[in-house]
């Protein structure tokens, strides 16, 4: 059995789901797909691993907590708890304050810039390759900042497969990923729909791990 590790850029997937709320041409809101954010990433990664010949041995989730926003922070912590219950390794970066200003109105404010996720993903990918922990890597992002690390791994280990797994709305913007990866696979909306957590996530003994936030409740079915 070939060993497979999946490396997931959490914010890239999160924002790709946000894009499903919009018409791709007009950018106007067409539907609410917030429920897709209660996504079982281990199950999603497994959907791209043929069980007859490959084994998903590790899944890594890279993200950061927006600690200055109480509600999103609480939702994110609940989500990470649910992910960890499936065996996923969470690798959290941080946000850095960044002063910004408007040249026209002279207004100023403090923005927040997410740091470290791309670097953390690159480091874990290269480290796992040199430790021979995978035969195939799944890189779940459309962010081209990871391209140099993919090039380095494929040059040093030409027998290893490095596949990009990209949300369909971002597929056409991922030309660099298509050039450097072994294969490029699209995550379609049905992949999200078919791999959601239940409302309550429990461990093997039945203990409650996390409850789906109200904002991520699926839309009511039309009668």
Q: Quick one: biggest sheet?
A: 6 strands, parallel
Helix count? 7
Give start-end ranges of low-pLDDT stretches.
none
Strand arrangement across the biggest beta sheet:
3-2-1-6-7-8
Shape, please?
Answer: globular
Helix coverage percent of residues? 25-40%
For this structure, what is the CATH class? Alpha Beta
Q: For the CA atoms, what is the radius of gyration?
A: 18 Å
Supply the CATH architecture. 3-Layer(aba) Sandwich
Strand fraction equals: 25-35%
What name goes with the CATH superfamily?
Answer: 5'-nuclease
Question: What is the N-to-C order of secondary-structure elements (H for helix, E for strand)?
Answer: EHHEHEEEHEHEHEHEE
Mean pLDDT level: 90
Number of domains: 1
State the end-to-end distance: 47 Å
Structural class: alpha/beta
The CATH topology, please?
Rossmann fold
